User: Fold F-box domain-containing protein from Populus deltoides.
Amino acid sequence: MSDNVDNNTKVDYTPFGKLPDHLLVEIFVRVPVSEWAQISCVKRQWANVFRGECLWQAALTRTYPLAHQTKRWPGPIPRGLSRRRYTALYVSKRIFALDGEMDEIVGHAYLFLKEQLEFSDTPSTSSILHGTIIDQFIACGKSRDIAHELASQIWLAVLDNLADNDLTFLILKRLALEGDVFLPYPYTKSIKVQWKVFEKLFTDFRDCFNHVDYYDVLGCAKNKFQPIPSAWLGY
Assistant:
């Protein structure tokens, strides 16, 4: 090696190191999605490919060829760019097993709710989040009954897929302690959704409670459900 080469510079002599971005895109979209995170960490060029729009446009066309026929929809939850659309369709397929005209919108509603709960600096109340999802489906022509059912499925899926950490405990506790606001059907939250919040708190996160918090949440549970499971009792 020449003395002019910086010893700290890593030179990639493999065939992959010489490929332009458009060829890398064609290769990467054929690799299983489960390996994309690892691939994007191999080198800076590859990370930039995964951050770019071209790869996600190609992946969207290859994996969901009918996605380009989907028109933009009305409502408060936007469609976003190719990466967002790909993620929404992937969620709909993997979590909800949907395959129809509403599958992408369900995925977007799921991403919206999960991000609002986990990453929002000023989180909205659950009633506002729930109402936003209901409004999205009604704006897209779904009946009140279907909008209510889809929103319930999305809430249950998000609650089941929150990380098992202290942040999730705080999110669930906030949801449990939120005061009930009377709203007409279909904006009322499903009893299954309300039950899931307390069930996760009293089973998966029981050890996170202090004495005061436990009895505050237990009091809310007793006001909502009668009788409550014996497994929820006992601090």
